[in-house]
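Q: Is it fine to ask for two folds in a single conversation?
A: Yes, each is treated on its own. Send the first.
Q: Here.
A: Result:
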Amino acid sequence: MRTRRRTSTRIAGVLTGLTLTLGGTALAAPAVHADIPACTQMVAQTGVEITDAVTAACTRGVVGDLQNCVNGLTGAGVPGGAATGACRAAAHEPR
């Protein structure tokens, strides 16, 4: 009887872990659809070349790290207000 309880407990634990893992993936999924192209287009409008540094900064905006996104874009030569707008655009889903 004791073996059955342990096995049942293990199965329940595995199922719970699987459910949490899959649920976490579903919650993170919207970030994949965030708008890097909108961010890079706004940067391009300022005349700054789209480099790996710009794309990396926009990617930080996608995950909600707006301050480091802005810092990365301003470091790449994007004016402050435009950098803020581009990072905010990155954090939103495409329209």
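Q: Second one now.
A: Result:
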Amino acid sequence: MTGEREPDGNLYVLWHARHLAVEQDERIVHLDADGAIHLNEEEWRIIGIYPDQAVAERQREISRKLPGFRDEPDCFEIAPVGVDEDLWNQGFVTVYPEGRRRD
């Protein structure tokens, strides 16, 4: 078992954010000043779920070169998730732009 890592009990989800909001000066903001992904009017896509973070990081490098993803190469996120773990156990609230609220 040389070179193999001990599993940490998590799987790793590779996400990509496609930003939809265009600023008044026609820019699309991908990253905030601190380098974090800008979270305002984006679509998230799951690229895949992987057995460890290293595999997810390798796939991120491959995906950065693909059409659609290469336009926003820094907008990937890798997040650990546990198996058999509820993630939305408090529900959610949708905030609609003014005038677009649904009943």
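Q: Anything structural to flag on that second result?
A: Two points. The chain has one helix and three strands. The helical segments are 53-63.
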